[in-house]
């Protein structure tokens, strides 16, 4: 049986992650409060941020930016797309 969580993003009970997807306190909060479906939404949003801002995830400043956006995405009202971003049709 899969682990269920009350997903903070979806606002309902859903299948939880199998392990903490990120190190430290933030990763533990995500593990306890975020579903697999919501995590997938973050990965898509993160990919958009990396592409739009032309980030290199190996650079410390880019990693810090993405960590901040991840925290906002799940726990602080959401992470916004860049103003000039146009979603694909």
CATH top level is Mainly Alpha
Average pLDDT over all residues: 92
Number of strands: 2
Described by strand count, sense and barrel closure, the largest sheet is: 2 strands, antiparallel
Beta content comes to: 5-15%
Helix-strand category: mainly alpha
Strand order, main sheet: write it out.
1-2
Total count of helical runs of at least 4 residues? 3
Q: Give the oligomer, counting copies of the same chain as homo and different chains as hetero.
A: single chain
H/E element sequence? EEHHH
Please, could you describe this protein's structure?
The chain is mainly alpha-helical and 89 residues long. It has a single domain (4-75), classed as Fe(II) trafficking protein YggX (YggX-like), CATH 1.10.3880.10. It is built from three helices and two strands, in the order E-E-H-H-H. It has helices at 24-33, 36-53, 60-75, and strands at residues 4-7, 12-15. It has a two-stranded antiparallel ribbon with strand order 1-2. The protein is globular.
Short description:
By secondary structure, this protein is mostly helical.
Question: In terms of topology, how is this protein built?
Answer:
Elements: E1 4-7, E2 12-15, H1 24-33, H2 36-53, H3 60-75
Antiparallel strand pairs: 1-2
What distinguishing features does this structure have?
two-stranded antiparallel ribbon, 49% helix, 3 helices, 89 residues, YggX-like, globular, mainly alpha
């Amino acid at each position: 049986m899969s682990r269920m969580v009350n997903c903070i993003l979806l606002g309902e009970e859903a299948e939880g992650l199998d392990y903490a997807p990120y190190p430290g306190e933030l990763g533990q909060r995500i593990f306890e409060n975020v579903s697999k479906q919501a995590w997938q939404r973050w990965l898509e949003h993160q990919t958009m941020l990396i592409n739009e801002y032309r980030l290199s995830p190996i650079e410390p400043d880019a990693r810090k930016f993405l960590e901040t956006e991840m925290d906002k995405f799940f726990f602080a009202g959401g992470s916004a797309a860049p103003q000039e971003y146009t979603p694909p049709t």
